[in-house]
Amino acid sequence: MDLFAVANAAETAAPAQEAAGFGSMIILVVVFIAVMYFVTVLPNKKAMKEKQNLLSQIAVGDEVQIRSGICGKLIEYKQDSEFAVIEISKGVPVTINKDYIMNVLPKGTISSLK
What predicted TM-score, i.e. pTM, was given to this entire model? Predict the structure, then answer.
């Protein structure tokens, strides 16, 4: 008879343990989502804001570097256009997507490389 009392007590305690396990699992998922947001989304938003700031400040005549490492002088650039034209060598214009502009170089950098 003692055995039945122990089995009955174990059955009544099991739902309480399952509920506690489910609650802690929900908390773990919420914490994981929050960590992923702070690790991936926020830095990406910051980088996009810096990129937009860079693209809004450049003008024709600036020396720029694109993602592939090619440096050139900006000869055609419009804020409302998706493309820009850089001159990578005397008389060699290249049309690029503005998103590929990585940074603006100090004036005279290209001439000092030759």
Answer: 0.62
